[in-house]
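Write out the 3D structure for:
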Amino acid sequence: MDITRMCTVGILLVGAVGCQNKLADENRDLRKQNIELQEALRQRESELAARPDLTGHVTALQGQLAQRDQQIAELQAQLNAKTAEPRETTGFGDITVTRDDKGNITVAVPGDVLFASGDATVKSGAKQTLNRIASIIKRDFPNNKVLVDGHTDSDPISKTKDKWKDNLDLSAARARAVAEYLTTEGGLKKSQVGMRAMSDTSPKATKDKSRRVEIVVVK
């Protein structure tokens, strides 16, 4: 999962009906352009066998197609967040987006996506997803408070006792790692971002889902 567009991490407006319709129109136009690009790409790939000089053109089309895919995913995530009642919606793959009755938006990124087991260093593969989430927050919520909450499952720390005192300690380290990434690499203002260590106080249906970091945009 590309995180994993997540959330994709993308991903998240609560706006007026007119703005929502505009997003839907943009999404529809992008999908139409995507279909046209896919058809053009298929044609160029067919011609490429007979004309090697078209290689550069095919590569350019592939790049445009990837860009359209990303834009479509971001718009869809925003539409999901706009139309959703307080419930889970899929944002980017395993990333989920929820909106509560106060308008607060929570982007939940699985801990296994962000970190290796028992670790609190953000994986290289997760950085693109955090960048995308940060870019959406910068664009659409530049002055909103952002809280980064670290969550764990209820299993006691065992294999990494040398690193973490308990689950509260681990959840704090993971929240800090994501908060620091969002400010140092993602470009969010340090004064905008806070963090909370939740340990295992807010479990989900499974241990996998319980291990997560939630990025909460406060209304």
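Confidence is low (pLDDT under 50) at residues 1-19, 83-91.
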